[in-house]
């Protein structure tokens, strides 16, 4: 890829465990990487750490729950660099709890951050992508959007909903050079998974046939594959990457 035709990738929730590895991988692949973040303090430290490792990411602040903030971020990227070619909807949170104790706040926070964010981001990139007749949208869902997990009614609903967006958006833009796909990772060694109480986590890991947590690099590898121009015939798909925890 020459500097002139380098594609622009936007990764939401970039400073998290999975986001960091996705940014690095896309940068290694030659893309210009825009890293979205919400917390100023965390982002500053992250950018410094990335610079020490030799990565020069463009940072863009926006709360992905806000349609307006996402719109401002996308317009800023267009002004600074050009049209977003690759959108990776990676931002996500957990607010786990048994359903009978789940509060409306726990429900709304997860739906806003994990699902409405996908609408917000897709909404602001889709017309420019249609204009250039090219785009790659990759939605990072979860094995728990495909199967049941005690304590995750909110998260499972959001993650299943993400693939609902993928399928319908994929067919709506199929003739426009844009692909839309879902990746459904299983349990990966990130802070989010390490926050699950050790005995619960150990029980979960014992149910993974591969016998270990996934690596962030393994998920980033799949993102890299789907981001490539020569995957044009793959759209509306859901890629499970879960060590055999859920096979169907
Ligand atoms: N299966 C069956 N019953 C369970 C249970 C389980 N896994 N966990 C708790 N219970 C039972 C308890 O024994 C208790 O029963 P009684 O009322 O009869 O005593 C009842 O459910 C309520 O238990 P708690 O008070 O402990 O429930 P809680 O609201 O505090 O929540 C929990 C429990 C913290 C959600 C716990 O179940 C848990 O940590 N689950 C794992 C959640 C998980 O996997 N999160 C993944 C985060 S990472 C991620 O999401 C990334 C990704 O994409 C994979």
Which regions are unreliable across 5 or more consecutive residues at pLDDT < 50? none
Radius of gyration: 17 Å
State the CATH architecture: 3-Layer(aba) Sandwich
Number of domains: 1
Could you state the order of secondary-structure elements as H and E? EHEHEHEHEHEHHHE
CATH class: Alpha Beta
Q: What is the mean predicted local confidence, pLDDT? A: 96
Shape: globular
Which molecules are bound besides the chains? acetoacetyl-coenzyme A
End-to-end Cα distance: 38 Å
Largest sheet: 7 strands, parallel
Q: How many extended strands?
A: 7
CATH topology: Rossmann fold
Strand content: 5-15%
* Oligomeric category: single chain
**What class, by secondary structure content?**
alpha/beta
**Distinct helical segment count:** 8
Helix content: 40-55%
Q: Can I get a quick summary?
A:
The chain has 248 residues and is α/β, with parallel strands linked by helices. The protein contains eight helices and seven strands.
Structure description:
- With 248 residues, this protein is an alpha/beta fold.
- It has a single domain, classed as NAD(P)-binding Rossmann-like Domain (Rossmann fold, 3-Layer(aba) Sandwich), CATH 3.40.50.720.
- Helix content is 46%, strand content 15%.
- The protein is built from eight helices and seven strands, in the order E-H-E-H-E-H-E-H-E-H-E-H-H-H-E.
- It has a seven-stranded parallel β-sheet with strand order 3-2-1-4-5-6-7, with helices on both faces.
- Helix 1 packs across helix 8 (216-227).
- The longest helix is centred in the middle third of the chain and has 29 residues, at 104-132.
- The protein is globular, with a radius of gyration of 17 Å.
- The N and C termini lie far apart (38 Å).
- The mean pLDDT is 96.
- Acetoacetyl-coenzyme A is lined by residues 94, 96-98, 101, 142-144, 149-152, 155, 187, 192-193, 196-197, 200, 204.
- Acetoacetyl-coenzyme A binds next to helix 6 and helix 7.
């Amino acid at each position: 890829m020459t500097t002139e035709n380098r594609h622009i990738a936007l990764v939401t929730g970039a400073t998290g465990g999975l986001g960091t590895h996705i940014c690095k991988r896309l940068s290694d692949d030659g893309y210009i990487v825009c890293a979205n973040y919400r917390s100023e303090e965390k982002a500053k430290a992250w950018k410094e750490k990335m610079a020490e490792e030799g990565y020069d990411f463009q940072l863009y602040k926006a709360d992905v729950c806000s349609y307006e903030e996402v719109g401002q971020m996308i317009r800023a990227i267009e002004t600074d660099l050009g049209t977003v070619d690759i959108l990776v909807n990676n931002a996500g949170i957990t607010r786990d709890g048994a359903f009978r104790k789940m509060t409306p706040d726990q429900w709304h926070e997860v739906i806003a951050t994990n699902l409405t964010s996908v609408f917000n981001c897709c909404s602001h990139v889709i017309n420019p992508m249609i204009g250039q007749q090219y785009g790659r949208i990759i939605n990072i869902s979860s094995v728990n959007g495909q199967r049941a997990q005690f304590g995750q009614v909110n998260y499972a609903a959001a993650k299943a909903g993400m693939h609902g967006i993928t399928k319908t958006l994929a067919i709506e833009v199929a003739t426009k050079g844009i692909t839309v796909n879902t990746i459904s990772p299983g349990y990966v060694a990130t802070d989010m998974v390490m926050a699950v109480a050790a005995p619960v986590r150990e029980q979960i890991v014992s149910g993974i046939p591969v016998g270990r947590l996934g690596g962030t690099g393994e998920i980033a590898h799949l993102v890299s594959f789907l981001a490539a121009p020569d995957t044009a015939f793959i759209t509306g798909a859901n890629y499970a990457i879960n060590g055999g925890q859920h096979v169907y």
